[in-house]
Specification:
Largest sheet: 5 strands, mixed, barrel
Number of strands: 8
Bound molecules: zinc ion
Shape: extended
Helix content: 10-25%
Number of helices: 3
Order of helices and strands: HHHEEEEEEEE
Number of domains: 1
Strand content: 25-35%
Radius of gyration: 24 Å
Strand order of the largest sheet: 4-5-6-8-7
């Protein structure tokens, strides 16, 4: 007998018992006290890294973002701008990468609206736009939130600028703001 069949034969069947109309109402639970957002999120569902040197070898990306500079790493040996920033070049594997600033302007290549099912921490922002942005002067296409206009007023090709912002839990990230 296969393992699956044996498991099926030993499965416990829980009969469905319809609830009596006289049953007492289910107990009400006390409201959940929310901690600060970053502490309340399950670790594996927090897509953003800790931004300090002890949390990531790319802490300089966030340091520079706090200064208003979007930057990334570049391999001088291969003349290769790497996005997202890396700790090693995927072509020659050197860890001797340099930090370079990226353009802070670009154009919307494509966008979509999040109308439901927003990621953790963004539920209150629905509806909002996310998009792919081609940075000016570099063959780099970045993904991010798009602010500045309602999603249904955005247009392909619309000019945007990079906007670093502080998250509610003390970290920093970037988004795009439509300027047109
Ligand atoms: Zn390289």
């Amino acid at each position: 007998m296969s393992r699956e069949r044996r498991r099926a034969r030993t499965a416990v069947v829980i009969p469905f018992v319809p609830e009596s109309p006289d049953a007492p109402p289910p107990p009400t639970r006390p409201p959940v006290k929310r901690k600060r957002a970053v502490e309340a999120r399950p670790f594996l569902l927090d897509f953003f890294p800790l931004e300090t040197e002890s949390g990531t070898r790319l802490a300089r990306f966030f340091d520079r973002l706090r200064e208003g500079r979007l930057s990334t790493t570049r391999c001088a040996r291969d003349d290769l701008v790497l996005w997202p920033p890396r700790t090693a070049c995927p072509r020659c594997h050197t860890e001797e990468l340099e930090w370079v600033d990226l353009p802070d302007r670009g154009r919307l290549y494509a966008f979509s609206a999040v109308l439901a099912g927003a990621p953790l921490g963004m539920e209150a922002d629905v509806p909002f736009a996310v998009g792919l942005v081609d940075l000016d002067g570099l063959p780099l296409r970045l993904f991010g939130r798009v602010e500045g206009l309602p999603w249904n007023e955005l247009e392909i090709g619309a000019p945007v600028r990079v906007e670093p912002y502080d998250t509610e839990d003390g970290r920093v990230f970037y988004r795009f703001r439509a300027t047109g």
